[in-house]
Amino acid sequence: MHLPIGGTESEMGWGPEGGFIQSKTVSVIHLDQQTQMQRSPLNSDSNCFHIPSLPNLSVFWCCFLLGLVTHRCTHPSRWGGSRGLFTGGGGASVVQLTLQDIARSLRDRQHKRVAVMAGAGISTPSGIPDFRSPGSGLYDNLQQYDLPYAEAIFEIGFFHRNPAPFFALAKELYPGNYRPNPTHFFVHLLHQKGQLLRMYTQNIDGLERLAGIPPEKLVEAHGTFATATCTSCLQKYKGEELQPAVMSGSVPKCSACGGVVKPDIVFFGEELPPRFLKYLTDFPLADLLIIMGTSLEVEPFASLAGAVRSSVPRLLINRDPVGPFVWGRRPQDVLQLGEVVGGVQALVEALGWTRELQALMAAGVEQNEE
Fold first, then answer.
1. Is residue 257 annotated as involved in ligand binding?
2. 48 labelled as ligand-binding?
3. Neighbours of 136 (CB within 10 A)
4. pTM score of the predicted model
5. Mind listing the pLDDT tens digit for each residue in 94-127?
6. Which of 49, 143, 206, 349 would you call most buried, defined as having the most Cβ atoms within 10 angstroms of its Cβ?
């Protein structure tokens, strides 16, 4: 399933791997002998502009234009990357934002509609292995289940033929085995302050819910263990109704028809939940996007990073630069690289919210123990 997610300032297109990417087409200004401006597309790998002959322009204006072009060639990022000099990229130098800038504007409530995107990297500090890290990812630890290939455990066709390996893995991942960490509680704190628009998570571990983030503020893009459905008669179940069977190592069966009951997580070959379509209204409204702990490799989730308006700051808290933070950075982008919890704590400290976060975590731990 691929959903078109694009910007408004430049041409967009599907990338070679299914991702929605920005075209390299830029606009060039040609001036004829009457100094009339015309736009024509130029597909070029160069960030520099070609200046045609300008016989009727004064020496002053020639020097002025050449000065602009020189600055555009030597400082392309300040002019909006590959966008045209006089088009959506803007004509004024833009100062790169910092983590302190993001903290200041958040603290001053300049951002009241914060969208959050999160991946497996926010859960690994809680002890949950991610899916792709060499040597420690879940895919590397699935050989014990005698699968034809690691990904088969999350393929719906294989599940229908042999659900046992999935439920053996589900026993390890089932909500309740792990606890939220400061990253999850930080998002809850954003909600408490009335600044969280929505959290979009790739995770199926349920730690966002355990941290107290309300379900209406969550879009669990890859599904959830909180609910389940019979694969035969489609009867609905609460997640906790499956827990005894899963924790005993059995395949849960439907009480009505005897069919296999599958948690409502998204397998390869299944559609994303309808709730994912909330991005269509959420991301145009967002005034800040925070992306944490994700490789931005799985579509269509990955393309959400480009769905906010180009003027909206994007903060990446991640081990490495990923996605548009590698090939399409904006002046409003801020990268806090390294361990995710450490990056969140640096932001919280800059916000002056450390005591509030600690109090929220203490209350959450006490509630979960009850």
1. yes
2. no
3. 11
4. 0.72
5. 678 999 999 999 999 999 999 999 999 999 999 8
6. 206
